[in-house]
Write a structure and sequence with these properties.
EC number: 2.1.1.220
Number of domains: 3
Radius of gyration: 26 Å
Structural class: alpha/beta
Shape: globular
Pfam families: GCD14
Number of helices: 8
CATH topology of the largest domain: Rossmann fold
CATH architecture of the largest domain: 3-Layer(aba) Sandwich
Family: Belongs to the class I-like SAM-binding methyltransferase superfamily. TRM61 family.
Strand content: 35-45%
Binding site for S-adenosyl-L-methionine: 119-122, 140, 168, 188
GO biological process, one term: tRNA methylation
Largest sheet: 7 strands, mixed
Length: 313
């Protein structure tokens, strides 16, 4: 990941070294994580890219293949890691992640408890938010998932900010060593209300909880239990709609004679070609224009985010 040292965060100031993890950007919907190894190569439909040509170049560089195709070499960030990580479980995406970090009031120096770890999508963003002096303690009941997540954090250089533990938070609660020490708690559990008594003990005064639930029935049950010890209870559903903005060619016809009503108003566009059909007395024009429209695949419901603040006793 990008350095947690604010003075070294600019990816343009960092050179790619042998052994670095880079994000190969092929197009907006296709990115891959690649470990740079001198003597190795990366192949895709654009050609063969030698790793030796990457070493020494700054992150963000556009590199060419043997066929003249190109990709961009990006520095790994939590946002990019979310797009390339292995999906061991259903993950949170950027719209939910940014909302969670904002409403949990996560800032540098915070102590955050998370259950469960899953694929580690949210965990990496939490770690960056608490850096350099905070820490994320994440728990998962599944030993293999926890082990794989730990390996990911180590190879991404985030292990100093994240501690992964195997524990059933829903059944056992958080360890007593965190009583009154957590600034924020995040739950991604099938029955989050079972962990709420433990969450109450872990949070500092005025601490904030977030519970992620895919079903509204889970939200209803959780809010019923939250009312006893928490205040400012709110539930959100974040829906993200992205747009495609690109240039397209348009073909039209017009009469040779001027129209009595004149030409209709149009957006600025460049005329590419103009052909006259003598038989039909029409002119065919090919023009280009910039169009903007919603993407065909719009990400819909992911889950409900319920936030609550520990009430002062």
């Amino acid at each position: 990941m990008l350095s947690i040292d604010p003075s070294k965060r600019s990816s343009l100031e960092r050179r790619i070294c042998d052994g670095d993890l880079v994000i190969v950007y092929e197009r907006h919907d296709k990115v891959k994580a690649v470990r740079v190894q001198n003597g190795s190569d990366f192949q895709n439909r654009f050609g063969v890219f030698k790793h030796s040509d990457w070493i020494g170049k700054p992150f963000g560089t556009k590199v060419l293949s043997n066929k003249g195709g190109f990709v961009h070499l990006l520095a790994p960030t939590p946002e990019l890691w979310t797009l390339v990580l292995s999906h061991r479980t259903q993950i949170l995406y950027l719209a939910d992640i940014s909302f969670v970090i904002s409403y949990l009031e996560v800032v540098p120096g915070c102590v955050v408890l998370e259950s469960g770890t899953g694929s580690g999508s949210l965990t990496t963003s939490l770690a960056r938010a608490v850096a350099p002096s905070g820490h994320v303690y994440t728990f998962d009941f599944h030993e293999q998932r926890a082990s794989l997540a730990r390996e990911d954090f180590e190879r991404n250089g985030m292990s100093s900010l994240i501690t992964v533990t195997v524990r059933d938070i829903q059944g056992e609660g958080f360890p007593d060593e965190f009583c009154g020490a957590a600034d924020s708690v995040f739950l991604d559990l099938p029955q989050p209300w079972l962990a709420l008594p433990s969450v109450r003990r872990m949070l500092k005064q005025d601490g904030v909880l977030c519970s992620f639930s895919p079903c509204i029935e889970q939200v209803q049950r959780s809010c019923e239990v939250l009312g006893a010890d928490f205040t400012d209870i709110r539930t959100f559903e974040v829906l993200l709609r992205s747009y495609e903005v690109r240039e397209e060619r348009m073909i039209g016809t017009e009469g040779v004679q001027d129209s009595p009503v004149g030409s209709l108003p149009r957006k600025r566009r460049q005329c590419i070609s103009r052909d006259v059909n003598n038989d039909s007395k029409e002119i065919t024009t090919t023009t280009s224009t910039i169009i903007a429209r919603p993407c065909r695949e719009t990400r819909g419901h992911t889950g409900y985010l319920t936030f609550a603040r520990l009430a002062c006793s």
